[in-house]
Amino acid sequence: MSTRVNRIFSSRNCINFSPSFTNKARNFETTSLHPFPSSGRISCRSFSASTTFSRAQVPVRTKIKGAAPTMASEYKTLKGQDFDRAAFESLLRRKVFLWQSFEPYGAVKGLFDYGPPLENLEAGVIDLWRDHFIRTEKMLALKCTMLTPYDVLKASGHVDKFADYMCKDPKTGEILRSDHLIKDVIETRLKGDKEARGEKVEETEEDPKKKKKQAKAAKTAVKLDDSVKKEYEHLLATLDDCTGDDMGALIKKHDIRNPTSGNEVEPPVSVNLMFQTQIGATGKEPAFLRPETAQGQFLSFQKLLEYCDSQLPMASASIGYSFRNELSPRSGLLRVREFLMAEVEHFVDPESGKKHSKFASVRDIKLPLLGRQTQNAGGSTPTVMTIGEAVDTKLVDNETLGYFLVRIMLFMQKIGIDMNKLRFRQHMANEMAHYAADCWDCELLNSYGWIECVGCADRSAYDLSVHEKATGTFLKVREPLKEPKKVEEWQANLDKKKSGPKLKKDGAKVEAALKNLSQEMKEKCSISMEKDGKVEIPVPDMEAGKVELDKDIVSFAKETRMETMREYTPNVIEPSFGIGRILYSLMEHVYWTREGDAARSVMSFKPTIAPIKVLVVPLQKDARFGPLLQELEQRLDDDAITFKVDQSGVSIGKRYARNDELGIPFGITIDYESLEGKGFTLRDRDSTKQVRSSVDDILEAVVKMCKGKESWDDVSKRLPAFESQESKEE
Fold it and tell me: Does residue 71 surpass a pLDDT of 70?
């Protein structure tokens, strides 16, 4: 793992993109933004409605929003064919994209190893992310530790709130995640109803254990009353919003049992999902593997502020692994226990109106926005509008949040995400943290439904405030005022000589509590003191949680002072990317099969991020091709173009086909005309068309296309066409 992390953080050449790119995004339109209902959404939210987190704070959270439909006949490939998930997953296994970790030992759920194609694809996506965000937006790159002390995550709220609900089968001891249990049983009953009505039931390749459980749960096809069917469908659509008590009530009401044993289950209980460990050998320093990268960035705030000469706005960015001890891993890379994240923390002055200096450059770009009001009305169709209009009407709260929504969409477009399978969904009121101003998810449609892949939240001043309170460390910005101003404020004055004997060791705690009282509370204390001669104040750090003070010990007075400095806690806009989810969705989006031959699969990765850029194919095994092959390999190495040589004895058409499955965008063929000094042929993966020219022309074209500076259409217009060897062989 450390090798992969080091590679991810290593510097690489930046990628440049053609000027026409942003213009295409500016004119973004779609007629098929919502082919499936919101009930097919997998979200990142796994807390109860009373949680103090926004979903973006813990972005790779996983909970099914209703029934994720099979969609075998609805969800389409890049070329409009029915998507066959079994064939797609077979390709990923055959071409060694990924597999479950530790397979010789029986494998471990929720952990995956990446093979060369997916590891290189991830590196390409991360390179582009660094260029698109860190370099272009002048962000401050950080690398913080994965081991995080207990106190940090206690202050942030993770110790208390980073949890899922589970049920236990008391007879077998089996642990079941509550929402998954409800979903699986209800889905199985709905399938049984379909069978009883004579309707077609779609099937996909599932975990054998899950299929076994569903089979046991179903037993026979049973037709449901229409009212029961409607209730079940509504239950699945609203399951994501249920608290632990809600799920307990559903389990009891609908007699939901362990599908494997048929036993009743115990009521849901909350289980923390962080991996706990300890620092050192004594066990006195408990710690966790981090559930997100953000906390390290918040605690580095003062150092970053000094680095930026105390100038805001500023943004930090971190790419690294986070961990979640998922109770029930499923859906491949969509719900895992170890995952790569890329997070930005953009710090801004709250009195600036959260305006962004570059907002004008994106104001006219259109996005598909599924607002809260539309969702409340039962709709799932996004409205396509400019971000300028969205901010002006307060659908999106502020310019900085809107700017990052656009940047997220442009990033997705750059890596090859299908724009007809992308939408931005606003958080519902019960998903929002109490401190959050606005939150949006970038959701991508794949065969599992709408998947939250990026959370973008206006987190206000929450994180810096809780860490400042917990540690006493100054986590604010201080800046001189243009003109001094007179300030009247309530002060609590503690007489330490008189309070010492009474408060003893709690004196410092009481003093800190008095200092932290709000102006409103200090004014109320003054009134109470004048009326009763005593006052009770909360002291969270004391065992009793409060203390009573009389007027001999403390006094409250309104004082006037001249203020020359302004102190404030910055607000934070946080885009948070789940890289594994993006990669999986991307692979589905670029997958298709050749017309008339479903066995010939293609992965149409963009040349800018393709795991391998060029396939080098000698026409036949012939020693005379050796010197040309060596020259070509050296030239490709010099240009930093990744390539693969296929000298096997099968036909050239078959060699092209099996490497199309790896997503290699270009093929250079060495043939007998090459021996006569007539150059090489260059093949385009998607169209299978070829051109022929000198090695210099061919390599120039490859380099430009891999940097996004030219397209195949550009190259085919300026280089002579060539009749495909592929068509001859086939």
Answer: no
Number of other CB atoms surrounding residue 461 within 10 Å? 18
∠ at Cα 105 (103, 109), nearest 5°? 60
Could you tell me the two tokens for 656?
Answer: 């092209």
Structure tokens at 310: 């105390």
Do residue 390 and residue 244 come from a single domain?
Answer: no
Same domain, 672 and 703: yes
Instruction: Report, as an integer, the average pLDDT of 453-468.
Output: 95
How far is the C-alpha of 494 from the C-alpha of 251, rounded, in Å? 55
Rounded to whole angstroms, the Cα distance separating 118 from 92 reads: 9
SS3 state at 390: helix
At residue 51, does pLDDT exceed 50? no
404 lies in the same domain as 293: yes
| ω into 313 cis (within 30 of 0) | yes
Domain count, the chain: 4
Comparison of pLDDT for 206 and 573, the residue scoring more: 573
Q: Return the structure tokens found at 453.
A: 């892949």
| pLDDT (mean) for 32-37 | 40
CATH number at residue 496: 3.30.720
Q: Which residue has better confidence, 240 or 524?
A: 524
Segments forming the whole domain that contains residue 187: 163-272
Rounded to an integer, what distance in angstroms lies between the CA atom of residue 572 and that of residue 438?
11
Residue 596 lies in a domain: no
- In order of 72, 214, 222, 231, the CA distances from 198 in angstroms are 18, 19, 11, 21
Are 121 and 7 in a shared domain?
A: yes
* Beta-bridge mates of residue 548: 536
User: H helices of 308-452, where?
Assistant: 372-376, 387-392, 399-415
The token pair that represents 694 in the structure block? 């000198």
Q: How remote is the C-alpha of 464 from its chain's centroid? A: 22
577: which residues sit within 8 A by CB, 6+ positions away?
A: 59, 129, 341, 342, 343, 453, 454
Please tell me the distance from the alpha carbon of residue 491 to that of residue 485, in angstroms, as a whole number: 18
Average pLDDT over residues 586-598: 94
Render pLDDT for 607-626 as a digit per residue (tens, 0 to 9). 999 999 999 999 998 999 99
CA distance 699 to 603: 22
In this structure, the answer to whether residues 126 and 213 fall within a common structural domain is no
Torsion over CA of 508, 511, 516 and 519, rounded to 10 degrees? 180
- Over residues 221-241, the mean pLDDT reads 87
For residues 404 and 423, the answer to whether their CB atoms sit within 8 Å is no
Contacts of 707-714 spanning 24+ positions with Cβ under 8 A = 707/15, 707/16, 707/608, 708/15, 708/16, 708/17, 708/18, 708/21, 708/606, 708/607, 708/608, 709/16, 709/17, 709/18, 710/18, 712/684, 712/686, 712/687
Residue 399 carries which side chain, given as an amino acid letter?
Answer: E
φ and ψ of 202, to 5 deg: -70, 140
- Give the length of the chain: 730
Residue 359, domain CATH = 3.30.930.10
| CB atoms inside a 10 Å sphere around CB 416 | 20
pLDDT tens profile 256-300: 999 999 999 999 998 888 999 999 988 889 999 999 999 999 999
Regarding whether 298 and 406 lie in a shared domain, the answer is yes
Q: Where do we find the tokens 């709408």?
A: 450
Boundary residue ending a domain (237, 272, 307): 272
| Cα 70 from Cα 547, distance rounded (Å) | 59
Q: Are residues 561 and 630 in the same domain?
A: no
Answer yes or no: is pLDDT of 718 > 90.
yes
Q: How many CB atoms lie within 10 A of CB 86?
A: 12
Task: Give tens-digit pLDDT for 503-520.
Answer: 888 888 888 888 888 899
The full DSSP string for 8-56 is HHS--------THHHHHHHT---S-S-SS-GGGEEES--S-TT-S--GG
